[in-house]
Amino acid sequence: MGDTNGQVIAGDHGPGDRLDQLDRPADVLIDKGTDSLLICDRWNERVLRWSRSSGTTHGEILLENIDCYGLAIDDQRYIYISDDNKHEVRRYKIGNKNGTIVAGGHGRGDGFNQLNEPTFIFVDQQQSVYVSGSNNHRVMKWTIGATEGIAIAGGQGQGNALIQLSHPRGLFVDAFGFIYVTDSENDRVMRWSQDEKQGTTIVGGNGQGQEANQLNLPVGLSFDRHGNLYIADSLNWRVQRFPIE
């Protein structure tokens, strides 16, 4: 901590589709099994693996011809990818080009077996898949093998009441089952218990702005091992850190 300059570890050769280039990357995670980055190279419609070894100059294509938006990986190193064009989430064994649908896959819609432009995803230790459905304004949970999901946050139409969301994106589920979601167009981050009908605003919710207690279209979020919450505050062009009790 305390560094003021970042280090480029992938891309930085302008937008393009060469293996040393990226174009609008949307999500990234670390595959500890290979000490590599997995990158959703969104506008190139592919997922790249990029070694974190010193001197790496390009990535390798794991999957292509996929409208990826969000990525997740489980303890068995299966990769999960949300496709916001096909309105589905698929699970892939690394090295296998054919995935299995684990959420959605029935076209765009608001049925419990449907998604509508899924964005970020999260997978828990039971391999349940949590999906931010941006245009359904809800977070869905799909247990392993399920043919329908359960709305566990939002799902009461677009709005700013505590029972509502507006284009949710970033998503995290902690060890106690609490769901954290960036409620992007309400400029707040909310926490939901899976057995409650309304959430709690834990960051933002003070109107759109650039003050320390405000957000402007938050997108991604993540936690560190100390319980600090990091938020990609997109239209304020910054990342904010908040201690969460």
Could you explain how this protein is built, in words?
- It is a single chain.
- The protein has strands at 25-31, 36-41, 46-51, 60-64, 68-73, 78-83, 88-93, 100-104, 118-123, 129-133, 138-142, 150-154, 168-173, 179-183, 188-192, 200-204, 218-223, 228-233, 238-243.
- It is mainly β and 245 residues long.
- It has two domains: 8-65; 68-243, Neuraminidase (6 Propeller), CATH 2.120.10.30.
- A four-stranded antiparallel β-sheet has the order 1-2-3-4, with no helix packed on it. A four-stranded antiparallel β-sheet has the order 5-6-7-8, with no helix packed on it. A four-stranded antiparallel β-sheet has the order 9-10-11-12, with no helix packed on it.
- A hairpin with a 4-residue loop joins strand 6 and strand 7 (88-93).
- The protein is globular.
- The model has no long low-confidence stretch (mean pLDDT 92).
- InterPro entries: 6-blade_b-propeller_TolB-like (IPR011042).
- Keywords: Glycoprotein, Signal.
- Residues 1-21 are annotated as: Disordered.
Brief description of this entry?
Keywords: Glycoprotein, Signal. The chain has 245 residues and is mostly beta strands.
Short key terms for the protein model shown above:
19 strands; 2 domains; mainly beta; four-stranded antiparallel beta sheet; 245 residues; Neuraminidase; single chain; globular
State the shape.
Answer: globular
Structural class: mainly beta
How many structural domains?
A: 2
CATH superfamily of the largest domain: TolB, C-terminal domain
Strand content bin: 35-45%
Number of strands: 19
End-to-end span in angstroms? Answer: 21 Å
| Averaged pLDDT | 92
Keywords: Glycoprotein, Signal
Region (Disordered): 1-21
InterPro entries: 6-blade_b-propeller_TolB-like
